Predict the structure.
Amino acid sequence: MPEDRGPLARHLTALKQRSGLSYAEWGRASHVSGSTLHRYCSGATVPPDYRTVVAVATACSAGDGELVELLAQWKAASGQAVGPDLVAPVVPEAAPPASRSRRLLRPGTLSAVSAGLVLVLVLALVTASGTEIGTVPARQQITGPAWQREQPLAPSLFGVTVSSASGVMPSFQVGSLRFWDSRTRWANLQPRRDTYDWHVLDRLADGARKSGLPSTLVLGGTPEWAAPEGRKAPYADGSRSAPPGDLAGWEQFVRALATRYRGRIDAYEVWAHANDQRYFSGSIETLVEMTRLAARAIKAADPEAVVVCPSIARLWTDEGRAVLRRFAGLRGYDHCDVAGINLSQQTAADPPETMLGRLQQIDGAFHDVGVHPRLWNTGVTYEYVRDERLDERRAIDYATRFYLVAIYGSGFGLERAYFYNWGSGSLPIALQAVGGAPTRAALAVQELQRWLTRTSTRSCGHGLALDLPAAVWQCEFTADDGRLLTIRWTDEGTAMTPAPAHTRELRELDGTGRPLHAGDTVTVSGTPVLIVGQPGS
């Protein structure tokens, strides 16, 4: 999109990116065509009336303060300026924070008081043109953080998927490892019915132990001998996406695996991309039974091992969420300690914050079937590897924000996030190729972890609900010495924010820092910054 597009187009684009909606989905929710919405976001045209602005904004969960801002931008874009004396009176008075343990995004609703104030603005904006004014519905306003909870931040949240058979481990700081695309599929580990080949997995498990990192092995890729007529998986090893013809053979394999690696591998993800026919082409009923048998075999051999239910992909689609509901309805999650989800941007160029809209949809799908499991984000889409490589600045920003979004998402039970991947230098964001040095993105991820060493989460929130600009995101932490640590970033553009009380220092991801005092202006961008408070603040 052109960089000279106006504030309204940029604001609508930011709303879309945060929501995680495609243009088609946004269009269905707002009753505006997807092509028209694209023209609004590109700046090619502006909405014809205030009702359209309200419809497209509320479909993306815009709050009332943000709606006021959008209406003012719309009026300015249509050629009639809005003065500050008109906008200022409609800023709602802050209400005391309420319980919000599971609200990640602003609800896009208006309070009775502020609805009237917004209506005053709308009246002033449109009366001159003779537009007929409808009723602005009274809705609820909630201010404060999206969630508040004191809980130690587990280093294992900062995971990477190791896609290498070398046994070499990352040379920058990470918190956990996941083995996939590492020549450790079932077809690799049991190439013939009566033959096991453990040498690659031995190397990987030993490397993880030496690094002191917990490891997760992904099971998948049925051997050709177990499903000779089955659909082939997208790998050169002859593995199949079809389930095995004899599920007893599957359970026997899992039992042998868990017995050999008891105490050496910490978790087992039962299958990857379970609703992608290229990876699993069996029925959901068969997948549930395979999960039950695998969990039984793993727990019998290694009671301390964590069983991760098959990961489900494309959860921004109705089909993806329908598979999740079906798996849950068949009580598949009863057999697991954790649910695996493939939570990623729709394309690598989308801001990481779009994952939060999808996480909200996932939480809704779980709620529909009465299940609320612990969640691990275990991967990306099949198409991700074909996306264009990001420039270095965005690679740094998006890699670090991937993990900050995971922390923000802990309000929905998200405990761990595995970045895809470690070991390759040809992906949209590369952290480190085997045999190479860590990229600047990897070093930024390492610096983020250093910021958060021995801390507890305190709260996360977003934008106007925190009395911050609409594009600003914030998470707060408490260090073990009592310091308040605040991380801020934007999903697009830059914003000016005040430093909190008791501030003493500002730190950057490149390791530099400078003194900072309460009330000083902090320029926030897509690159996260750390604001360090005084002990006891």
